[in-house]
Amino acid sequence: MVVSVYDRYNDTGAPFTTRTFTNTVVVTAGAAHSLVPTGSGFSSSTSQNLNFGNRTAGQCLGCDLLVRKNTGCNLTFTSRNAGVMKLSPTPTSDLVPYSCTADVILVNLANPAQISLPAGVSPSLDGNRLPATITIGDLGNFSRR
Fold it and tell me: Which of 4, 15, 81, 129 suits 136 as a labelling partner, its CA being 20 to 30 A distant?
């Protein structure tokens, strides 16, 4: 940045003196996420309750995963039970398989899975919007109980 000092206000002549200053700005990389109902704005929410009621194979429910960022980042998805729901608080052998997509990318929940977001600042104040969908899989004998 160059700063010039003149003898008088609005002087059109040569400056009395000129100094050059160097500014340095450090921007720390950062990211934040929010899980919200579909179409909602960014909030402090990091969980969503998807109530499937009486489950049927192929049934889908979803929400939006919003990510605000100023750098590239990886989103890691994990499933405590590797992509199956278990009854709680008393687990039984009954399992309900499910799949997850984020931004139309099928996420393999058998192991931790990652989706990479490109470098750069999020495109809006709400961040990158990744629609997330949970789909109930084949229920086998469980659907008849």
Answer: 129
